[in-house]
Amino acid sequence: MKASGLVVVSVAGMAALLAGCVDRANSPVLYPVGTPTNPSFVAHAMCMGEGNAAYDESMRLYKERSQISGQYDEDEGKAVSRSAARRAYTACASSEGYRAVYDQ
Fold it and tell me: pLDDT tens, 29-52?
């Protein structure tokens, strides 16, 4: 029983350690324009949610359209969905009083 408890504790410790390793390589930098309504970390969290919802909706619509046409390209679907998510994120960030700048 003690060995399994030790395993659980060590796995939980590793999970907590890795939770801090967030990849921010592709996330934008938010610059305030005027007077932002929320701090940048709050705006980023809200806008990420909107971007994820836009991605899912765009992918769902792409799959439905591809069923009608009979032509499905996974890479094209991902590209269309990624651009929809980026548009949603940028629109959300600007409505919160920030300008989203991406590294490219």
Answer: 889 998 888 999 999 999 999 999
d(CA 103, CA 30): 12
Cα-trace Rg, the chain: 19
List Cα–Cα distances, 2 to 5, 7, 12, 13, 15, in angstroms: 5, 9, 15, 16, 20
Q: Domains of the chain: which residue ranges?
A: 27-101
| pTM of the full structure | 0.72
Mark the ranges of the chain whose per-residue pLDDT is less than 50. 17, 20-22
